[in-house]
Fold these 2 entries.
Entry 1:
Amino acid sequence: MTLLEHIALQVQPGESVAITGPSGSGKSTLLGILAGLDVPSEGEVMLDGAAFSALDEDQRALRRGELCAFVFQSFHLVSDLNVLENVMLPLEIKGVSKPADIARQWLERVGLGHRLKHFPTTLSGGEQQRVALARAFAVAPRLLFADEPTGSLDHANGQRVIELLFDMNREAGTALVLVTHDDQLAARCQRHLRLEEGRLLTPEPA
Amino acid sequence: MHAALTRPWRDPAFRILALALAIAALSLASVVLLRAELEQRFDVRTAEVLGGDLVLAGSYPAADTQRDLLSDLRQSEIADFPTVLVHEDELLLVSARAASDGYPLYGELGVADARFEASRGIDHGPRPGELWVADQVLDRLGIEPGVTLTVGRQALTVTRIIRQEPDQGAGFYSMNPRILFHSDDLPATGILGPGTRVSYRLLLAGAAADVSRAEQALPDTLREDQRLDTVADAATRSMGPMRQLTLWVSLGVLLVSLLCGAAIYLATTQRVRRRARMAALLRSFGARRRQVLTRLLGEEAWAVIPAALTGTLLGIALLLGLRRALGWDGPLAAGVADWLTLLLGPMVLWLAFALPRLSALVRTPAMQVLNDRLAPRQLAGVIELAAALGAPVLLAALLTGSLAELAQLLTLLVVLGALLPALLWPLLKVLDVTSRRLPLAARLAVRRLSRRPGLTLPLLASLTVALAVLGMAGQTGNQLLSDWRQKLPEDAPNHFVFNLFDDDLPVFADWLSEHGARPQPAYPVVRGRLSEINGVPVREAVTKEDDQTERTLNRDLILTEANTLPPSNRVIAGSWQPDATGEVSVEKELAERLGLALDDEVLFTTSQGTVSARITSIREVDWESFEPNFFFMFAQDGLAGQDITWLTSFWLPEGDGARLASLLREMPHITLLDVNALLDQAQDIIRQASRATGLMALLLMAAALLVLGAALLGAQAQRGRDNALLRTLGGSRELIRRVTTLECLVLGGGAALGATLIMLAALYPLGQRLFEGALPWSLWLLLPTVLGLLVAATGMALGRGALRQPPLALLRQEAG
């Protein structure tokens, strides 16, 4: 079964790209391939000018750790680690020095400086997603993948997270690939692509 | 119905639950049944040794009024007395028994028709006119079966050789060769008259209700000279090792049940998580609580029954195999209460450990579940704790029949169960804090454990207890068995020899070396009756009037002198001076009975006059040691000038009757006692005990690993998600592998460390008492570490599944 075909997508540094599409259209699969979490059966993914999908799994993980970050719909914080430790985690994997200082800084930035020692289960959904944002930006990624970042949040919290996401993205100059159902959210990106039956289309302007 | 039975099996959590229940049922069934078999056999054996379910003993025959009370019971009366046989010019002192019809009531007599012929069992005694005699009578008098001997004034024909009586006591030392004839011939012998030393025993057997009626009626009718012996009295006197063994095995089953209970609890937690959505959906569709319970709990209950039954059937099969291996026949000994215990026990366990948890399905608000806000840790902990603590107590009560016996062990278990998590919790916290400086992998590993106390603490506690018990069982069980083995090696002395004279010793030594028999130390022996204590005649000095004391005072005691104490003797008061003439050491229980203390002067009357000595030590004697043991041991030369004979023991392969006959021909005056039958029985118990402990240890370890399996399974989904997340954030497979390995090592190592500490703490008092403060170091102390590593390895193997989960699954769990 062919899930995706004729996909040609180039994302420039600092550019924001939204990908929308109906359920089951392959959005998450595309995101996984772009992030090197899966490999295409045909074709190639280049990251920062170098072959990415051709690398082995551990090399891809290393490269991903250096250049990319994620924000998920279900936040995916590690439940055994507190807020500060969650943000420190990718920094430590990357081997950055003084991870706690950097993590604390980003948590201040998302307004959670007072909840450093709390565990994820004690936070609201909106707060958990803000921790996820801090964790994503703390590693200073060149490219941020966001998969339905507001999908599990109510409107007010979703709005707050989106504002933060775009603000921080702008400040850090990070490229953004955003998968979403929400056309309004997609409209805030510089480019909007639609995935239908495995093909990427540029939608008609509304 | 079929689908309801099979559906739960698709869930790995249910399979663990079912396996735990099956293991608990298996150990419960096999132990309950085995205990019933052992107890019944022990009671039967005790009744055999006693001669009946009840024995009315006295210096005169039982009165007719007493016999009238006993008409519902089978009866046989025996009279035991010493007499002298005369044949041609030979005189022989024998121990005679006249038995009425019906003798023996239990067991069989071992007889043979000719010298050196193998023994066979026979269920009746001699008929009037017949005389059955021991081999030694033939050897001493130089006769063959068929000869007519005169007992008193009555001529009787020797028709059989008697080798074994079921009610043969262990009174080795006063044993003259046995002759047995029918009590109808007794009056004609004319032996019995006023002043004859004779003891009558009316043996009684029958249905339990009739026996207990007689047991209640008889005491009021007892004469001064009479006493009533019951199986229960006899059993309490001699059940020591058997009771220890059943207690040990009961504790084992209790621990297996507890560990299985923990596995059931953990697996059920998983089941609840998986089924919560279904329950919530049913409720959102309008189902009432009862309907939800019937559907979900009913299904669960139906599905666990086959698992419990399988375990029970396996346990029954195990016992049947054991019965066959041991040649036990007859119907199973277990009573209604035993069957109820083994059938209901597993369900009690399930009800206690699973039901409170499962009932959370209807207690948690449906919307919380549907919105993924289930907080499983907040579920009515009190009920669960009460059930989890109550079930083992109930099981213990069912297993032992009396709480008092296991009270100490239960207290220990409860203390460990409550104390261990409480002790481990701060340790885990400390580990959490100190791990901040550790490398990332170690830190993540520690945090997986330290930040899930609800899972880690019970798991660590049960693994620790299991490892500690296994280690201690290994250490003490092995110690116990090796002690027994040392006491009863394969070549333990199986023959005792009395009445050797000084001149016989070199001849006897030659015979031993010629036949490859293994000699043991020889003890000089003098027969003497205790006549004075501190110058006061013993009848006045001893005020205690019980039966045993009476017998001690009425018979010749065997006195010996030695320069060293036998290994099975331990001085508990005073000191043993081998060269201090005029001093004597006395056995503890006898000293208590006669009220003897250190520095008392005792005087014995012997064939050569008297011998006296001052008590300078009191000894504890191991009577089960199959070594010659003595109530009074004099220091060297303490018995100088007395008529000394020698007593010794030796080992010779069984069934070598011809060699023994040559010994008896050479020294016809000696008394030879064959204890092979007793030895075989004791060695058989050792073998069964070591099998039982081995099996119990295996079941215990299996149960402990099952708990680990259930715990890891419970955390598997979360673990898989965490690993995938680490990969997404750029972590290598190596990092994840290291985290998993370290986590298992910390868990296994922590349990091993805790278990070793518990072992050391438990062994410390032993070391204080027995080894002057030094701990009894042995390789068994390493067992928890070895097992801890096994636990770690099992954990790593089980955790590999979570390692394989692709990171993309993280994204796939979401819309897309």
Entry 2:
Amino acid sequence: MTTADAIPQIDTDALPMGDSRDQAWRATQVAPLIAIADGYAVTTRRGAEAVLKHPDPFSSAKAFDMLQSPVPLVPIAYDPPTQTRYRHILQPFFSPRVIKPMEAELRRQVSALIDPIARRGHCDFVGEVAQIFPIQAFLTFFGLPLEMRDQFWGWKNAVIGLTGAGFAAESDAAQEGIKKALEMYTYFTELIPQRRGAGGDDVLSQILAKQPPDDLTDPEAVGLCFLFVLAGLDTVTDTLGCGMQRLAECPDKRQEIIDDPALIPAAVEELVRLDPPAPFIPRVTSADAEIESVRLPPETRVSTYLGAANRDPAVFENPHDIDFHRPENPHISFGMGPHRCLGSHLARLELGILYEEWHKRIPHYRIKPGTTPKVHWPRGTVGLESLHLEFDKAEE
Amino acid sequence: MKLRIDGATCTGHGLCYSVAPHLIEDDEQGYGHVFGDGVIPDNQLAEARAAVANCPEKAISFIDD
């Protein structure tokens, strides 16, 4: 039995995530189990499996308390069997064969977004593409008007901003955030009864048309909408920004997907492997637990560091290298076990479309001299603040 | 040689039917299922190996006939 004081301590907030994500993840790989500010973290693939595939005792029920959400976060903050029921209801709406018909419309939207940028010759990829497209995809998926894009942008930022300060905070900024979060809450609370029984062909209407015992209550449906906004927008933004930075910095890798667009699905997987956007998966032990021969009491916070597990040398050859030809890439950026990312197929579709359409129009680009893409750090997610790109203007 | 997907371990990542479309299909929940009895034709061994190797849950395995 390892004693707790033999476990290396890592100050996650002090990692060089802002400038060098590769170096930051490497710095966490000092031991399979590390001590962090509020508990422990596993850093290997084996550790990730031990935690994420075993909701008992590594529970999700209390793991998201820090978000202080005013609505039930369906389904991430639940354990089986409640979570199993939610997954069974929701999963068909997020499966590849159901998502696929959206492809043409999403491709059209991406083209409309990129064409003016191609003619201009420069952009902030994060602000003008990576932040915009996932919101549009969400609106399309839920059958909401694209004109609500900026509205949702403001609401999302307010809700995510509050997850740091908490809904109980009293500062002016927090009060403003609470006001906007309540606006979004009110919007969904009014939308859901309208969509229930209306027979729409959008995903939200179809989820609400489910009959007992597969029906969701209004609060459950509001929680699902909140979770989609919290989990489905910034994650795609962040992985797109980080992925494009790597492609901009590695012209030889970029040339591979320009020469052979069939390589893009593999590139999507590899870029997501290196930069999981939500790389710290929280759990709280519901009973005595043991990890790497360390005994953990109940109520211990155990995080899984996906960026480290995805660079486990026991699973990945040259784990810190970017390689679009890996014969095996069983990364866990979308998690694993019962809580595997529900939106992974939609995310993959969005990422694939974006990389394809962008490189058709703008194959050659560089990071604007004098600018340095930086990850906003410390924070619970990993994404760039901006990514200024330059390229030759497309013909009018 | 046959290919087998353990339904209790599969969580629907969906990589298997992308890398091995001749051997595995998706269902309406997004889970993978082997075609027929799972027998792997000689010319599709590479696909089968890719499916096994890329499954994040290690839910796919080879079994003897």
